[in-house]
Amino acid sequence: MDFLSLLEQGLIFGIMAVGIVISFRILNFPDLSVDGSFALGAAVSASVLINGGSAILATLAAIIAGFAAGSATGLIHAKGKVDGILSGILVMIGLYSVNLRIMGKSNIPLFAVNHLFASKEGSLLKIVLIVAAVKIVIDLFLRTHAGFVLRALGDNTKVVEGLGVNPGNYKVLGLGLANGLVALSGGLMSQYQGFADISMGIGSLVTGLASIILGESLLKRFGFIGVTTIAIVGSVIYRVILAMAIHYGLQPSDLKLVTALILLVILILEKKMGGKYARV
Fold first, then answer.
1. What backbone phi and psi angles, to 5 degrees, belong to 116?
2. 0.85 cut: is pTM over it?
3. Among 190, 187, 168, which Cα is nearest to 179's?
4. Which of 94, 78, 73 is nearest to 31 (CA)?
5. In whole angstroms, what is the distance from residue 135 CA to residue 109 CA?
6. CA separation (Å) from 159 to 65, 82, 149, 151?
């Protein structure tokens, strides 16, 4: 097993897990548009690169596209009064066609363009710096007025309404931020792997949830560890578990089943322990 590669991939997926923390844990919103947002980030990033854009521009474009997708989910739910789960499903389905339109085909190779990881030398440092920047920005944001409102919104909508704040606007903001991070993860992963594929986002939500719950089950007992750190560390541990499963004989095609089983086992164990960490 290449532990350096596992660490790098785990950190990239950790950004996605942080985004899912915002929607599922902080907003307590079942956002199913994540799968589409991850592929959207990859599609936008790859399209910018093959059309001569810089790696930084491609990465920023992925974030903006993801924010727009998450905002769409929030608007459908808050303004259109559509159920949260259905809102995410509608956006996820729509994004499949959007991603195909952006890419023009189902797969875009990036081996002939200059991107963040065109040279693997120093890739870990780049990833660590990006992940650290994301963690710091999100941690600081959650300490602002808007961050406190988002936290309150996930716990009790009536309290937020009592403060004279429109909860719908903050749901749009929170979901936009969450999906922006997911799309950033997708954009970085497309550059790291050297290609973008229309199917890249399949299972992203379950992967992110598994990472979060795994991290919580191991780290949340230490009260000083924040939710963003828990998500990132859980993502790295999760990638190691999958790599070990392959190392000991499982096929790559079995990984989705392994993910589902890991998630199921952790949830069952937490329920037996009182359900302390199992709020999804």
1. -60, -35
2. yes
3. 187
4. 73
5. 30
6. 31, 22, 10, 11
Task: Compute the distance between CA of residue 256 and CA of residue 247 in angstroms, rounded to an integer.
Answer: 16
- Is residue 206 within 8 A of residue 24, CB to CB? The reply is no
- Alpha helix (H) ranges present in the chain? 3-20, 34-50, 55-78, 84-103, 123-141, 145-155, 157-162, 167-193, 204-219, 227-247, 255-272
Of 245, 247, 238, 243, nearest in space to 266 by CA? 238
- Report the alpha-carbon distance of residue 72 to residue 237 in Å, rounded: 32
Report the alpha-carbon angle 212-215-35, nearest 5.
20
Alpha carbons within 13 A on the beta-carbon side of 7? 9
Q: Please report, in tens digits, the pLDDT of each residue of the chain (280 residues total).
A: 578 888 999 999 999 999 999 999 899 998 999 999 999 999 999 999 999 999 999 999 999 999 999 999 999 999 999 999 999 999 999 999 999 999 999 999 998 899 999 887 889 999 999 999 999 999 999 999 999 999 988 888 877 877 778 889 999 999 999 999 999 999 999 999 999 999 998 888 888 988 998 888 888 777 678 899 999 999 999 988 888 888 777 787 777 787 778 778 777 766 665 554 433 3
Give residue limits of the domains in the chain. 3-202
> CA 28, 33, 35, 36: dihedral to nearest 10 degrees?
-160
Instruction: Quote the DSSP letter at residue 89.
Output: H
Instruction: Centre a 10 Å sphere on the Cβ of residue 162 and count the other Cβ atoms it contains.
Output: 10
Q: Residue 107's beta-bridge partner residues?
A: 197
How many CB atoms lie under 10 A from the CB of residue 240?
Answer: 15
